[in-house]
Amino acid sequence: MKPVLYAEDDADDLFFMRHVWQLAEVPNPLVHVKDGVQALEYLAGEGAFADRQKNPLPCLLLLDLKMPAKSGFEVLAWVRHHQTLAPLKVVIISASNQAADIAAAQSLGVTDYVVKSPDPEKLLCLVRQKRHLWLPISG
Fold first, then answer.
1. Who contacts 126 (Cβ-Cβ below 8 Å, separation ≥6)?
2. What is the Cα–Cα distance from 28 to 21, expressed in whole angstroms?
3. Number of domains within the chain
4. Phi and psi (nearest 5°) for 2?
5. Which domain holds residue 125?
6. CA angle 131, 60, 11 (to 5 degrees)
7. Could you give the CA distance from residue 50 to residue 46 in angstroms, rounded to a whole number?
8. Which of 52, 89, 95, 121 would give a disulfide with 111, using CB separation of 3.0 to 4.6 Å?
């Protein structure tokens, strides 16, 4: 089962996503990276992520916009400029509900844009509702 890469710098958001992932019974493992630099290293198969057997390419990238080192926008732009990653679905999960951020993400080819909710129940409903849109049927 291909993993889902989750690029998120906030420990609370990570905790809730992991919890929701289990409750929603998503079979794809959730792999976490703490910032945009690690996301790029994982996707490129570099550094600590060079072993593709241990760190296979994900079937989905869940991406926060506001992260240290490299922003979600920078990661998304990088992904869209690499032909081997072109089919990768990217879902922005951000606290920003700003029209400019949503438009910028859409212009970079984001699959979906979700505004974070502080309510774990809403996140659970969202993951249950969208998982078939976000994830391949075969996993």
1. 114, 117
2. 9
3. 1
4. -65, 145
5. 4-131
6. 90
7. 4
8. 89
Vertex 110: Cα angle to 75 and 42 (nearest 5): 35
With respect to residue 100, please indicate whether it lies within any of the assigned structural domains.
yes
Answer whether residue 62 is part of any domain: yes
Distance of CA 90 to the CA centre of its chain: 6
Of 28, 38, 37, 36, the C-alpha closest to 4 is: 28
What tokens appear for 32 in the block? 């976490």
Q: What is the pLDDT of residues 41-53, one digit of tens each?
A: 999 999 999 999 9
Q: What angle do CA 12, 93, 32 make, to 5 degrees?
A: 55
What is the CATH classification number for the domain harbouring 19?
3.40.50.2300
Residue located via tokens 């774990």: 120
Q: What does pTM read for this prediction? A: 0.94
